[in-house]
Design brief:
By secondary structure, the protein is α+β, with helices and mostly antiparallel strands. The protein is 26% helix and 23% strand. The strands form 3 sheets. Strands 1, 2, 3, 4, 5, 6, 7, 9, 12 and 14 form a 10-stranded mixed β-sheet that branches. A 4-stranded antiparallel β-sheet has the order 8-13-10-11, with no helix packed on it. Strands 15-16 form a two-stranded antiparallel ribbon.
Length: 315
């Protein structure tokens, strides 16, 4: 974007002992979430090499032959092959299936009290490093997501644990999205994307992305679709529907999409690491009242909302 509405936030200021720094940071986060629903975050403390190691292991898996990957398709977890995901259906938009493959894992704390269930149960024998790397990465993402939720609570003049008291036993999802090159997928059909237009479903999403011509776009109500800004080492952060509902639409659930493979770069393939953070499934989401909130939503149970949305997008 020529003039990006998505600011660069240095999260290391949150860990300082200066309350004024925290207040300024929280106010800036509030302004950005009100305008676009997105942030670029640096100073997050994530080891610089960790995302690259996860991406490399995942790419080793994705480049295996299709028959080798097929046994790892485990009831909408593990490997999700091409033409299985149509993300735009979550907002009622009809598009052809998304041009991607996915490795999907999650923790569902509602399965057994006190014993969160991690899925999938079977990880690739051909790439033994993938499971431990994803385990390490998602642990770091969970900590980062909770830090951001504390910043958001402060922005609303609420106690720092206003959101995180509901994420001690969260439901989280982690997807590794592989966007194959154009020479593999063929020409995109009309209205077909690597990921169709949508908003995310949970509280906050943490994206580690690779820049590309067939990359991320965000929707601006005035300017329409715009290329998302990219900053090396920064995480792209956006809030999801549950947070928008909780804030009473004070904050926007940012609409976004990923462009199809570009004909002018037929060899371009990209891999994104996407961590979706949500609260415990039994959390009741009730909109904050005015003057903080702008629009009251009907209360929902977090787990029910997420399940309904996931059923809409997966075949």
């Amino acid at each position: 974007m020529a003039t990006s509405p998505i600011p660069l936030i240095d999260l290391s200021r949150w860990t300082s002992d200066q309350s004024a720094d925290r207040e300024r940071l929280a106010a800036r986060v509030d302004r950005s979430l009100r305008s676009s629903g997105f942030l670029l975050v640096t100073g997050h403390g994530i080891e610089p090499e960790l995302p690259g190691r996860v991406r490399a292991a995942a790419n080793d898996f994705f480049h295996l032959p299709q028959p080798v990957k097929r046994p790892y398709d485990q009831n909408r977890r593990g490997w999700i092959g091409r033409e299985r995901v149509t993300t735009a259906r979550s907002e009622g938009t009809l598009t052809p299936p998304d041009l991607l493959e996915v490795w999907s894992c999650a923790v569902d704390s509602s399965a057994r009290p006190g014993v969160p269930q991690q899925t999938p149960g079977h990880w690739p024998d051909e790439v033994p490093t993938l499971h431990p790397l994803v385990t390490a990465y998602t642990a770091r993402m969970r900590t980062l997501a909770d830090t951001l939720l504390a910043v958001m609570a402060t922005a609303l003049r609420r106690p720092a644990d206003f959101f995180t008291r509901h994420t001690a036993r969260p439901h989280w999802d982690f997807t590794i999205n592989w966007y194959p090159a154009a020479h593999e997928t063929g020409t995109a059909a009309p209205g077909q994307f690597r990921v169709g237009p949508h908003t995310d479903f949970g509280l906050v999403t943490l994206l580690n992305r690779q820049p590309g011509k067939g990359g991320l776009q965000v929707h601006d109500e005035e300017a329409g679709w715009q290329d998302a800004p990219y900053e090396p080492g920064a995480y792209t952060v956006n809030i999801g529907d549950l947070m928008a509902r909780w804030s009473g639409d004070r904050w926007r659930s940012g609409r976004h999409r990923v462009l199809p493979p570009p004909p002018e770069a037929p060899q371009e393939e990209l891999t994104s690491l996407v961590y979706f953070h949500a609260c415990a499934p039994d959390t009741g989401i009730t909109s904050l009242p005015a003057p903080l909130g702008r629009r009251p939503y009907s209360p929902v149970r977090a787990g029910d909302y997420l399940q309904d949305k996931m059923r809409a997008i997966l075949d």
